[in-house]
Design brief:
Helix content: 25-40%
Structural class: alpha+beta
Number of helices: 3
Number of strands: 4
Distance between the termini: 81 Å
Largest sheet: 4 strands, antiparallel
Order of helices and strands: HHHEEEE
Shape: globular
Length: 135
Amino acid sequence: MNSGLLLAVAVAGCVAVAGCESGEQPANRAQIKVANPMHEGLLKLTSLNQRLALMRAIRDNGRRCTRVDGARYQEDYRGMVMWVALCEDGRHWAVFIAPNGDTQVRACADMHQLNLPQCRPVTPAPPEENNVNNL
């Protein structure tokens, strides 16, 4: 067989194998989840302390929030965890926490435009959870 024909057969074989791929991920493909100690620590806090930590993250990212009235974990997203916080002015913020503790904050009103997961609304915490004496 000449080298040109051999190359053509090899390319055809590669194309045939590549053509069998549907573009979908195999069902048995292992999913790897990176540990996120900052998120795990946040889950262990009281509701009040979770809200204080998220308020700090919002402010550290240059956003305005005098008080976080409600907060909850929403989902994992691209190696980060996403929390949603409700500030006293009625604005919802998405707080993304990376495994190394870095945070990114986005206004929930902008999530669709940014092609990010839509925030699910958060309700304010009960008044008894806002008492600093509960610490």
